[in-house]
Amino acid sequence: MALQVESQPEMSQTASSQADAQTTTAGSQTLETPVADAEAQAETRTADSDGSGSDPRDSPAVEEVKPETPVALVTGAGSALGRAVVVKLLADGYAVVGIDDTATNLLGDSHLVLVGDMSTEEGARWAVTEAVDTFGRLDSAVLLADVGGSRAIHVPGTVAEGEHLLARNLKSIALGIKSAVEGLSLDGYRSIVATASVAGLLADPGNWAYHASKVAMIDLVRSSALTYAAKGIRINNVAAGLLRADDPNGGVADPTFGRDFSRRIPLFRLAQPAEIASVIAFLVSPAASYVTGTTLAVDGGLTASAGLVF
Prior knowledge:
Blueprint lengths: L3 E4 L7 H4 L4 E3 L11 H4 L19 H4 L7 E5 L4 H12 L3 E6 L10 E5 L5 H15 L4 E4 L14 H26 L7 E5 L12 H21 L5 E7 L14 H8 L10 H12 L10 E4 L12
Parallel strand pairs: 1-5, 3-4, 3-6, 4-5, 6-7, 7-8, 8-9
Antiparallel strand pairs: 1-2
Helix pairs in contact: 4-9, 5-6, 6-7
């Protein structure tokens, strides 16, 4: 099993620099999430970096992909949820292209790891192009964007923070949908799933920009689903609840907060990333062929509650 990491090319005014992408190899890593222990114990071989500039698409991992293998693009692949989604889709027989803004090691076969910025049109288009060029097709896209935390709107500087948050949480999803729609194979699953979070359905004091970005994402998905339904493209949202802090790259950093917050949840616990990933995989798959334009809450009953938990 080989792991390739390709970096988004630096954008400049010359076409040659736009086409110049740096290719490196990454080390193997065991995925420490509660997603299939057998997979987490598998060995990962990495290609030797000889500095020759060889195309990562020449690796055995890519050669093993058959034409009928569905291909999925997963953004935010380095997060706890992103890793769980990659593992689940690989287990379901997908070839996966994962992209994050930092170098990310992922466990598994038949995948490519990209380093790029989905909040720019060039970065979003590049990720889709790499998926199609590498595996010959694109069936689905899972768009994960969750930069959180904003201060009360009266605090100096919070408007600038809000602009950054909207760019990461909303603009990256919009550009991801735009680029995926253009790249989805005509004979494929043609499905897109975004993650809006329960923050798009509920609100907390002070955190105005984060909630605004998630509320806007819900209607972005609704409108996009209506726009592209006639083309056979399904677009849905998952409103995920709070995740356990089992991965240092995501989830709740403060275990006390997680314990206290779980008292608001009817199931009395936080979500495992694998539980959210399974729902995302369902919405991506043909099993959800009649589902589009919806926001599905996967939150342990949090948004169904009026606040009273017995």
